[in-house]
């Protein structure tokens, strides 16, 4: 697997897990609130910041008639999909203020994109990676356009068949774009039994690219399990208050907990260590066992487990060599509790 860089941040099996702090559109049209989120993300030490370039409400038809139902901390909310998009649409000039802050804080930023204009704007602003949301995995013109920008493309592999994912990856790689795949377990929030974290390994083995997870679990323990399975990126929503009634925030982590959360992720990542045990040399073998007399052994007496035992330190014959001396005769008298050495044993000449 080749390392993929999100700006200055390396992503891959040879590097620590990368936390992408996702603010999505939680701030609605309040770019000041978005900048506050960004500053807290940077202060907490999260290495990558993420949002969405949602600047044109016409990505959803005005007369679509579609409703969206989203979960929140105390129940469900139903809203017109078009109305939702309209209250979250942000001017590109306001996004420019947010991204200027990213550059000032020297934190790479990622965004989900929905149209070509948003892609062009994001590239001009110095974005680090483009994300294709799960609902755009069949939007082949957008995928191809993103792949031509010279940036990594992150695919949100939710609600897609493997052949659809393979098609998207093939299109991006044909244009030379580095690829990261995010496992997207399901609805928000996704319960533990619906996480299917083994998919992480399936994507890694199938596509040989870094794999992340778009976390929609209300809590954090699932993500520590994901790190153990080799996930390379953790994308987790972050917000000021995850109990408020708003789309997607139900599974977000509060910004006040972000520093500790990132610390735990890095500890779990560091704990994976080497693929084979690392043995410090020289080894201390003083507590391994050596052969001793359980009772007084007379010269010529046959050595068995009835008259021989094992104790540390191994001053004489080591326990691992018992098969070489079992059934042989003692070459001298050995007192109870005394170590039995090689020259105490009679071997045929």
How would you describe this protein?
Helices cover 29% and strands 21% of the residues. The strands form 5 sheets. It has an 8-stranded parallel beta barrel, surrounded by 7 helices. It has a two-stranded antiparallel ribbon with strand order 1-2. α1 packs parallel to α3, α5 packs parallel to α6 (162-174) and α8 packs parallel to α9. The longest helix is centred in the C-terminal third of the chain and has 15 residues, at 258-272. The chain has helices spanning 31-43, 81-88, 92-105, 116-124, 140-147, 162-174, 199-207, 221-228, 258-272, 322-325; strands at residues 4-6, 9-11, 18-22, 48-53, 67-72, 75-80, 109-113, 129-132, 153-157, 179-183, 211-215, 233-239, 253-254, 290-293, 308-311, 329-330, 345-346. With 349 residues, the chain is α/β, with parallel strands linked by helices. It has 2 domains: 8-272, Aldolase class I (TIM Barrel), CATH 3.20.20.70; 290-346, Antifreeze-like/N-acetylneuraminic acid synthase C-terminal domain (Type Iii Antifreeze Protein Isoform Hplc 12, Alpha-Beta Complex), CATH 3.90.1210.10.
What's the short version?
The protein has 349 residues and is of the alpha/beta class. It is 29% helix and 21% strand.
Features:
single chain; 349 residues; TIM Barrel; Type Iii Antifreeze Protein Isoform Hplc 12; two-stranded antiparallel ribbon; 10 helices; 29% helix; elongated
Please tally the helical runs, counting DSSP H or I stretches of 4 or more residues: 10
Could you name the ranges where pLDDT drops below 50 across 5 or more consecutive residues?
A: none
Query: In total, how many domains does the architecture comprise?
Result: 2
User: How does the overall form come out from the CA principal axes?
Assistant: elongated
- How far do the termini sit from each other? 59 Å
Mean pLDDT score: 96
**Biggest sheet details:** 8 strands, parallel, barrel
The overall strand count is 17
CATH architecture descriptor name of the largest domain: Alpha-Beta Barrel
Query: What is the CATH class designation of the largest domain?
Result: Alpha Beta
- CATH topology of the largest domain: the name is TIM Barrel
Rg of Cα set? 30 Å
Strand content: 15-25%
Give the structural class.
alpha/beta
- Provide the CATH superfamily of the largest domain: Aldolase class I
Helix content: 25-40%
Strands of the widest sheet, in order across it, are 3-4-7-8-9-10-11-12
